[in-house]
Design a protein that fits this description.
120 residues, alpha+beta, GMP Synthetase, Chain A, domain 3, 4 helices
């Protein structure tokens, strides 16, 4: 990724986070975190990875709600960022924290079940 694409992705990350927490608070998504934004080199497409904390709905439904309002989000983004063209937005659920928690639980379980580590 070029330096310009990295700078634009960081700015989009901050602005999307602001839009989701302030302008689209009526979605009741809990705490939404923009974990990563990947821009294409031509700055026409942005893959946005989100995580949700404190939400009772499945992540897929939350992503669907956000995708339904994609045009509104682009409109808010265009008023905050000055680019030749606002990129097309693609939202994905970032499950790396859940994956890391599962791995940690498995490691703890392995250490609990390991008879060699128990002291007598």
């Amino acid at each position: 990724m070029s330096v310009r694409a990295e700078k634009v992705s960081e700015e989009i990350k901050h602005q999307i986070s602001s839009v989701l927490t302030k302008d689209l608070a009526e979605l009741n998504l809990g705490l939404v975190t923009v974990t990563k934004v990947l821009m294409s080199n031509d700055l026409k497409n942005a893959k946005i990875y989100l995580s949700f904390i404190g939400n009772k709905e499945p992540a897929a439904e939350c992503i669907d709600k956000i995708n339904y309002r994609k045009k509104l989000i682009r409109m808010h983004l265009s008023s905050r960022i000055y680019l030749k063209s606002i990129p097309e937005l693609f939202f994905y659920y970032d499950d790396t924290t859940e994956y890391a928690n599962r791995i940690e639980k498995l490691i703890k379980k392995i250490h609990e079940d390991d008879p060699g580590d128990k002291k007598e």
